[in-house]
Amino acid sequence: MSHPILYSFRRCPYAMRARLAIKSSQQTVELREIVLKNKPAFMLTYSPKGTVPVLVLQQEKVLEESLDIMLWALELKDPEHCLPNSQEQRNEMLALIRENDTDFKFNLDRYKYADRYPEHSEAFYRQQGENFLKGLEQRLIENNFLFGERFSFADMAIFPFIRQFAHVNLAWFEQASYPKLQNWLNFLKASALFLSIMKKYPAWQEADESIYF
User: Fold this and answer.
1) In angstroms, rounded to a whole number, what is the distance separating the alpha carbons of residues 63 and 72?
2) Is the N or the C terminus of the chain less surrounded, counting Cβ atoms within 10 Å?
3) Pick from 89, 83, 67, 74: nearest CA to 24
4) Which pTM was predicted?
């Protein structure tokens, strides 16, 4: 295996943030785009839980969590200084990411698929998710990014989920009272880094030539 292998799904926010970190760190991986309804046997051999992203390293070491993949990439090389130097600030970033990945993601799923969760209305789930948005808006009042004037590991990890939340009802989001968050999201959506990781690739087949990302 000449390069690590990344199993990914283009629209998955967890896979997005892994690809963002890999591209930012200038690592080269073999990209295998999958179809979630038809997961390749090779991927399931390495990661039976069947979720993306999955990164297979040399000696067949496997990273199955997006944050682990991000840290692997950025700790190898971090030309944009996305990781903070201080362990204290790294812990602060991880705490905010944890809030995104737990409470916010819980409400995001229910907002996006409200018909599957009829216990409450779509508006109710959106309001629950807004508790997290309000905190991000406050962070962005003083700075262009979540932890200052530099695009960071936290922005990279959280951005794909805010993008997903906004696109559930983009008309609502664009008129909501989150001007700083809207600017932040639009800036990142238009960035060269994001556009570079959102190119479309055909679903991987065993006989295909390798695609390097």
Assistant:
1) 9
2) N
3) 74
4) 0.96
Rounded Cα distance, 112 and 122, in Å: 8
Tokens 């700075």 belong to which residue? Answer: 143
Read off the amino acid at residue 108: L
Angstrom distance (rounded) from CA 3 to CA 155: 27
Q: Are 213 and 29 in contact (CB under 8 A)?
A: yes
Q: Are 17 and 160 in contact (CB under 8 A)?
A: yes
Contact 53, 90 (CB under 8 A): no
Cα angle at 88 between 96 and 147, to 5 degrees?
50
8-state DSSP, 26 = T
Pairing of strands 54-56, 62-63: antiparallel
Largest CA-CA distance found in the chain, in angstroms, rounded: 52
